[in-house]
Design brief:
By secondary structure, the protein is mostly helical. The chain has a single domain, classed as Four Helix Bundle (Hemerythrin (Met), subunit A), CATH 1.20.120. The protein has nine helices and two strands, in the order ααααβαααβαα. Helix 2 packs antiparallel against helix 5, helix 6 runs antiparallel to helix 9 and helix 8 packs across helix 9. It is globular, with a radius of gyration of 25 Å. It starts with about 25 loop residues before the first helix and ends in a 14-residue tail after the last helix.
Length: about 280
C-alpha cells in the first residue's frame, strides 16, 4: 500500500485555496442593525415576564425605530440581499408579533385566561401572515408604481405600536377598572384584523425624496421638537402618534380608491415596443 500511496511533502509556496469569498462590510452593517432590534424584542419578552412593562414597551419602540433604519441603511450602502430580507422578516415577527402579544397577555389578557391567550395567539399569527403576504407581494412584477405609496393592511411596526395603546394609557394613570380587560381584548383583536386585512394604508416610503430648499430648516426644527417631546413625554407622545395613525387609515383608504379610479379611467398602458439593437 505504501507503494501505491507514497507520502509527499506539500509545497510550502503553493497558495492555499480560499473556500469563502470575503463579505464587504456594507452587506454586514444592515444585518447588525436588524440583529440589535431582534435582541431588543427578545429582551422585551423577558422584561414582560418580570413585570417590567415600561422598559418592555420602550424596547419595542426602539426596535421599531431600528426596523425603519436597517432597510434604508441597506439601500444607502447598496447592501441589500435576500439574506437580509429574510432576517428582517423573522426579526419583525418576533419584535412586532410575539413580543407585543406576550406583553399584552402578561399585562391584562391573562385575566381572561384561555380567551385572552387565544386573542394573543391571533395577534401573533396575524402578524406572521401579514409579513408572509408582504414578502410574496415583493415578487409581483405587475404591481403599478403608485401602489408603492401604500401598504396592504396595517404594517407590522405600526400594528405593534398601536396595539400597545392600552399600556401607554395605563402608564399615564388611566385606570380602566373592571371593564378594562374586555375592552383591551376587543381592541387587540381589531388591530389583528387590520393587520391581515386588505385595507390600504400610507407607506411613506416614497415621501421625502426631494425636499424644497425653503423647507429644510423648518424640517430640522420640527424634527428636533418632535424628538424632544418624545424624550420628555414618551407615553403622551406615543398616545398621540397611535391615535393620529388610526385616524389616517380612512384617509389612506380614500386616497387609494381615488388613485385606483384614475388608473381605471386612464385605461391599460400600451405595451412598450421592443428595442432593436443598434448596428455595430
Amino acid at each position: 500500500m505504501d507503494d501505491l500511496f507514497p507520502p509527499f511533502e506539500p509545497d510550502p509556496n503553493e497558495p492555499r485555496p480560499r473556500r469563502f469569498k470575503p463579505v464587504p462590510f456594507r452587506m454586514i452593517a444592515p444585518n447588525m442593525i436588524t440583529l440589535m432590534a431582534l435582541c431588543l424584542g427578545l429582551t422585551a419578552i423577558r422584561l414582560a415576564f418580570e413585570g417590567k412593562f415600561e422598559p418592555a414597551v420602550i424596547a419595542i419602540v426602539v426596535a421599531g425605530v431600528l426596523d425603519g433604519i436597517d432597510g434604508r441603511v441597506a439601500r444607502l450602502l447598496k447592501g441589500t440581499s435576500r439574506f437580509g430580507a429574510e432576517l428582517d422578516s423573522l426579526a419583525d415577527f418576533v419584535n412586532f408579533g410575539c413580543a407585543p402579544a406576550l406583553i399584552l397577555y402578561g399585562f391584562a389578557l391573562h385575566n381572561l385566561k384561555s380567551l385572552g391567550w387565544i386573542v394573543a395567539l391571533i395577534f401573533a399569527i396575524a402578524m406572521g401572515l401579514r409579513l408572509a403576504r408582504f414578502n410574496a407581494m415583493l415578487d409581483d412584477p405587475s404591481r403599478p408604481e403608485w401602489k408603492k405609496d401604500f401598504f396592504v393592511g396595517m404594517p407590522a411596526p405600526a400594528g405593534a405600536l398601536t396595539a400597545m395603546l392600552p399600556l401607554y394609557l395605563h402608564f399615564l394613570g388611566l385606570d380602566a377598572g373592571s371593564w378594562g380587560t374586555p375592552a383591551i381584548l376587543v381592541y387587540v383583536l381589531c388591530i389583528a384584523l387590520l393587520v391581515v386585512s386588505t385595507v390600504p394604508t400610507f407607506s411613506g416610503k416614497t415621501m421625502g425624496k426631494r425636499v424644497p430648499r425653503a423647507y429644510v430648516l423648518p424640517i430640522f426644527l420640527a424634527g428636533v421638537a418632535a424628538f424632544g417631546v418624545l424624550i420628555s413625554f414618551p407615553f403622551e407622545a406615543l398616545v398621540a402618534i397611535s391615535l393620529t395613525y388610526l385616524a389616517t387609515i380612512p384617509v389612506g383608504a380614500a386616497q387609494y380608491r381615488r388613485r385606483q379610479k384614475l388608473e381605471a379611467a386612464a385605461g391599460p398602458r400600451p405595451p412598450e415596443p421592443p428595442q432593436v439593437p443598434a448596428a455595430p
